[in-house]
Every structure is written in C-alpha cells, then in structure tokens.
C-alpha cells in the first residue's frame, strides 16, 4: 500500500458528490458500485448513477458524482487457526 501519511478522508456533499483520499487503486467500477483499495482496506461505495469525475492515484484522490447510498469497508479475514487466535 502507498503511504499518504496513513490517513484517509471521505467528504460527501448532499449525497450527490464525494471526494476520497488515501485511495491506492480502483478495483472495479460501474454505475451502482465503486470498489477501491485504500490505505485502510477495501472500501465500497454504493449508489446510483455513480461516475468517477477525478482519478489521481499518484496523490490518492478520487472524486465521485451520483446518488450516494453507502460506504463500507470489507474486513480482512484472519488466516490464523481458531486455537492460535484464542491463545495468541
């Protein structure tokens, strides 16, 4: 992952536009979903009529327009066994 000071921000205006920082790459994109790898993990944006209007991965910035319904992070699954997670 790239280092952007290990910070990420999401700024949403009237559920119609958003600016995200700390984005490493856009993994997939259509008018209903945008999936991005960020400095804090995989982030999905759900909505309708979504359009990426700015993509600057060298600075980690993505700007989106459309109706924004939700943002959510996907947790990384632990590859440790149950016993090693219990007993550390």
Work out the strand percent. over 45%
The biggest beta sheet reads: 6 strands, antiparallel
The ordered H/E elements are EEEEEEH
CATH architecture: Sandwich
Helix count equals 1
Helix content: under 10%
Taken together, the total number of domains comes to: 1
Low-confidence stretches: none
Cα(first) to Cα(last) distance is: 26 Å
Say what the CATH topology is.
Answer: Immunoglobulin-like
Rounded mean pLDDT score: 88
Radius of gyration: 15 Å
* CATH C-level label: Mainly Beta
Topology (SSEs and partners):
Blueprint: E1 10-13, E2 17-20, E3 23-29, E4 33-38, E5 41-56, E6 61-74, H1 82-87
Antiparallel strand pairs: 1-2, 2-6, 3-4, 4-5, 5-6
Describe the fold and architecture.
Helices cover 7% and strands 58% of the residues. By secondary structure, the protein is mainly beta. The chain has one domain: Immunoglobulin-like (Sandwich). The chain has a six-stranded antiparallel sheet with strand order 1-2-6-5-4-3, with no helix packed on it. It is elongated and about 45 Å long. The model has no long low-confidence stretch (mean pLDDT 88).
